[in-house]
């Protein structure tokens, strides 16, 4: 007995919109999943596995109803470094531990606190990732091997590009990659009917067609098969958890994946009028997805703003769209895996160069410099530190700068001097007296007349730290030792809680 049509519509009132949106998200996600995997130094199929888990598993869980998860360009550099340093089997352990930490933080209701991370640090982190990603993928555009460190990648680029023009294969690879980037840049200017096909899919499709028709001597994706690529981490790999380096990498994965996912959720919430994100539940959902990806030996996942925005703009209403997109990825990986072998590596590199460029917020930096130079400085220093040192250290430097800036701004101090020409000079301190403002305080007090008595009024202070108190007592002793009357200090009135 078939179910009446009206009953089906009542149970799934937005099925038509969600079905259409899922196809759009699938077409956007497919080349990105493959491209991120190849750039991360792992089999292309593992990117699809992460996309499938992000769609079906994380997509079914509560948290953010419309944002879509999968492998992200923002973690490409970190994954590549982890695979190079610890090996592919250890990647599963890292991702599994990352998922377990995210689940724990979500259960402890710590998800909301990620919203307190300085936006400049997060944007600086993404900008640094974008710069390293661009530098690394430019080598892939010319079929060359990229150096290991960020500075070496940037320093070696001019030579690699010059060498490319002397080789027919490298020139063809560069032309194909540059054409892919050009299609992505120009796609949004084409008529709306043409743009029904997502830009990344069109760019890869055209590049694949050009490589086949022109018989270009360019590298293509290696195909291992879906089941052949899934390699759960062996028990021996878990022994590396005792190493400090691996633990630091896990912390970096957790912080970056969680921050990117929750910032993406906040951005997606601004794009629609549906239910708002439950941040702790979303962190648990991301953790569950990463834990499963770790068990399968796949890439880590985050919520991806590109796919999420495409989902909303395509008219998605419920989480059914992101679950269905995972189903389409699964069907593609199971039924058409050999199609991946036709995709040129330079085309995927072009997609990631374009994605990396979008991570560098040049307009935001210019705007911040005009209005909040301190925030702009944090953004730039974080990005440069990631390029010059490493991801983890760069983020720590950015966070430290943000804390110092906040502490500096919070320690406002004001000294008001009242000198009536006769009698004691009255000095009133108000605000927050911390060690950060100590030089300014002492300079002002030492400028007071040495031959006049001073009355120092501290009742306007909201906070007086130990360093400032000790310095003020020392100054008062020195001033009194000059032969004048002892400095009279009026302390703030202390109230005790009842």
UniProtKB/TrEMBL annotation:
InterPro entries: SLC26A/SulP_dom, SLC26A/SulP_fam. It is found in: Membrane. Its main location: membrane. The chain crosses the membrane at residues 20-39, 86-108, 120-144, 164-187, 199-221, 241-263, 326-355, 376-404. The keyword Ion transport does not apply. GO terms for cellular component: membrane. It is a multi-pass membrane protein. It holds the Pfam family Sulfate_transp. Keywords: Membrane, Transmembrane, Transmembrane helix. Residues 15-382 form the SLC26A/SulP transporter domain. The keyword Protein biosynthesis does not apply. One of its GO terms (biological process) is transmembrane transport. This is Sulfate transporter. It comes from Streptomyces griseoruber.
């Amino acid at each position: 007995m078939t179910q009446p049509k009206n009953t089906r519509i009542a149970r799934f009132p937005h099925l038509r919109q969600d079905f259409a949106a899922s196809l759009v998200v699938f077409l956007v996600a497919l080349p990105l999943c493959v491209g991120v995997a190849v750039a991360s130094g792992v089999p292309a199929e593992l990117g699809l596995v992460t996309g499938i888990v992000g769609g079906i598993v994380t997509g079914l869980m509560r948290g953010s109803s419309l944002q879509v998860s999968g492998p992200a360009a923002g973690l490409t550099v970190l994954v590549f470094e982890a695979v190079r340093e610890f090996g592919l089997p250890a990647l599963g352990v890292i991702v599994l531990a990352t998922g377990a930490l995210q689940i724990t933080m979500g259960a402890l209701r710590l998800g909301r606190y990620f919203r307190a991370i300085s936006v400049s640090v997060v944007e600086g982190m993404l900008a640094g990732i974008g710069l390293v990603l661009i530098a690394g993928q430019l080598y892939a555009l010319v079929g060359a091997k990229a150096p290991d460190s960020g500075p070496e990648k940037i320093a070696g680029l001019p030579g690699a590009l010059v060498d490319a023009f002397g080789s027919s294969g490298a020139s063809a690879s560069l032309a194909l990659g540059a054409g892919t980037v050009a299609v992505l840049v120009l796609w949004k200017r084409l008529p709306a009917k043409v743009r029904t096909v997502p830009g990344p899919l069109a760019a890869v499709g055209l590049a694949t067609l050009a490589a086949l028709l022109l018989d270009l001597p360019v590298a293509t994706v290696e195909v291992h098969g879906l089941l052949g690529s899934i390699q759960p981490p062996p028990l021996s790999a878990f022994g590396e958890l005792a190493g400090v380096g691996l633990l630091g990498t896990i912390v970096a994965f957790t912080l970056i994946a969680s921050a990117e996912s929750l910032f993406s959720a906040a951005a997606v919430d601004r794009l629609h009028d549906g239910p708002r994100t439950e941040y702790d539940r979303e962190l648990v959902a991301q953790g569950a997805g990463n834990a499963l990806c770790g068990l399968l030996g796949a890439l880590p996942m985050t919520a991806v703003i590109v796919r999420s925005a495409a989902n909303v703009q395509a008219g998605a209403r419920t989480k059914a769209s992101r679950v269905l997109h995972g189903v389409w990825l699964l069907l593609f990986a199971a039924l058409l895996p050999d199609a991946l072998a036709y995709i040129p590596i330079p085309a995927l590199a072009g997609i990631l160069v374009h994605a990396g460029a979008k991570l560098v917020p040049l307009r935001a930096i210019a705007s911040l410099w005009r209005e909040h130079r301190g925030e702009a400085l944090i953004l730039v220093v974080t990005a440069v530190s990631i390029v010059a040192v490493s991801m983890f250290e760069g983020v720590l430097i950015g966070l430290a700068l943000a804390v110092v800036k906040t502490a500096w701004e919070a320690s406002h101090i004001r000294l008001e001097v009242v000198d009536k020409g006769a009698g004691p000079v009255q000095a009133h301190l108000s605000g927050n007296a911390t060690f950060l403002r100590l030089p300014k305080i002492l300079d002002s007090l030492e400028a007071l007349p040495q031959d006049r008595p001073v009355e120092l009024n501290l009742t306007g202070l909201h906070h007086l730290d130990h360093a400032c108190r000790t310095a003020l007592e020392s100054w008062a002793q020195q001033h009194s030792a000059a032969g004048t009357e002892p400095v009279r200090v009026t302390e703030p009135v202390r109230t005790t809680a009842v």
